[in-house]
Specification:
The structure holds two protein chains of two kinds. Chain A is built from three helices and twelve strands. By secondary structure, chain A is mainly beta. The longest helix of chain A is centred in the last third of the chain and has 5 residues. Chain B is 2% helix and 29% strand. Classes of the chains: A mainly beta, B mainly beta.
């Protein structure tokens, strides 16, 4: 049995990030306690709690009509830190519609709800760790964190990987968004190189002629350490 | 070598995608082995206010101490009526209630058994990188020599204990304080 590598310190966001106000009352002030990984941490739920449906990875086909907005394809591979594919693993995504509104009762941003767009999708990675979603480009939206605050367009991603410690919930951003420097959520990651990891790239090979723009985003989950632990 | 990607907050708008399926709160189906219990998890912020938009994920062994996972190479078979994974959103009172069984003891390091525990990930708006903790059961004699609990300062261990509800038999309560005086112990793994 081999534990997972510890995360590199600068690779993750600061938990207490003053510019993102709600971090202040919702994060521990005392240091986390480091513990060794046991069977409890290196195991975890494996894929589908529910079977994946036909339109689960195509968010443009979940209603009788087509959603408004720019049709896009988001595709890539899920890998571990050694570059090995993470196969047969559940990915869940959710996002705002083209106008920047979520299908959620708490979202009262006065942009229209699109009756043909829910904004939730699921996929299972294939044997090579590949995934592919068809959706529409989400809009940017305002929030109340600070004056004139807007979130850059993003798609939320939830991944499990093989263990409870490989769990990752994150957000994928689109290239060259002018809102990046003003977004305290992205800026909570201090290392520019680590921020870049969350930005998809436009990809002509993923783009489908006369149909949809393609974005490519590979995702890296924690990998195994070199030495097994003693059971 | 590649580097694992950064986490970002789950935000306030996840429930139509991640917790739309309330069945994920029922981990023990009819016929699951072991002591069945309802586990009520409540989440509070640093002001002691309930957190109504958190998501709690649980991962645990079955009553026989077996994880349904290929890395668990113990000879026993997993309980087919038990799903080790649970996931729920908190309600307006900051609470969610799982139906599960008391887990068995699983091997720890160097062969010693661990005290029964449930692994917990906490996600919420304002939590940029999910928080990881464990739920132990108050009064379990195995807690005394659990190697992970031993790493926690004695005066903070009670933040990791679920307690039986004073009024309703079969219900256990576990309160998570994200911050503040009663701050729960969170782990770095």
């Amino acid at each position: 049995m081999t534990p997972y590598r510890r995360l590199a310190p600068g690779s993750q966001p600061e938990r207490l990030h003053e510019a993102y106000r709600s971090t202040l009352q919702r994060n521990p002030r005392k240091p986390l306690i480091q513990i060794p990984q046991t069977l409890s941490e290196v195991t975890g739920p494996l894929y589908g709690h529910n079977p994946i449906g036909d339109t689960d990875n195509d968010l443009t086909r979940q209603h009788p009509g087509e959603p408004l907005g720019q049709r896009i394809i988001v595709a890539g591979r899920v890998l571990d830190e050694d570059g090995r594919s993470v196969s047969n693993s559940l990915i869940e995504i959710w996002q705002a519609n083209a106008g920047g509104r979520y299908r959620h009762h708490v979202d009262n941003h006065p942009a229209p709800v699109d009756p043909n767009f829910t904004g939730a999708g699921r996929a299972i990675t294939d044997a090579d760790g590949r995934y592919r979603f068809v959706t529409i480009k989400p809009g940017a939206y305002p929030w109340r964190n600070h004056s004139n605050a807007w979130r850059p367009a993003h798609i939320h991603f939830s991944l499990f990987g093989p263990a409870f410690v490989t769990r990752l919930v994150t957000q994928m951003y689109f290239p060259d968004d002018p809102l990046f420097p003003y977004d305290p959520i992205l800026q909570s990651i201090r290392e520019p190189q680590a921020q870049q990891r969350l930005i998809a790239r436009f990809d002509l090979d993923t783009t489908e002629e006369l149909w949809a723009l393609g974005y490519r985003w590979d995702i890296v989950l924690r990998g195994r350490a070199a030495t097994p632990f003693e059971e | 070598m590649l580097v694992a990607y950064p986490s970002q907050t789950v935000g306030p708008f996840f429930d139509f995608a991640l917790t739309a399926n309330a069945a994920l709160g029922s981990m023990a189906r009819e016929g699951a082995r072991g002591e069945r219990l309802h586990l009520e998890v409540r989440v509070f912020d640093g002001d002691g206010q309930p957190v109504p938009d958190a998501m709690i994920e649980l991962w645990q062994a079955d009553a026989g101490g077996k994880y349904h996972h290929p890395d668990d190479t113990q000879a026993t078979a997993p309980d087919p009526a038990f799903c080790g994974f649970g996931r729920l959103a908190t309600d307006n009172c900051g609470a969610c209630r799982f139906e599960t069984v008391r887990p068995g003891r699983v091997p720890g390091l160097s062969g010693a058994l661990q005290a029964p525990h449930i692994n917990v990930n906490v996600f919420a708006r304002g939590v940029l990188w999910h928080l990881f903790t464990r739920i132990y059961f108050a009064g379990d004699p195995a807690n005394e020599d659990d190697a992970i609990l031993a790493l926690v300062p004695a005066d903070r261990r009670d933040t990791l204990l679920a307690r039986p509800d004073a009024n309703i038999p079969g219900v256990w309560n576990f309160d998570i304080y994200l911050s503040g005086e009663r701050e729960t112990v969170f782990f770095d793994v």
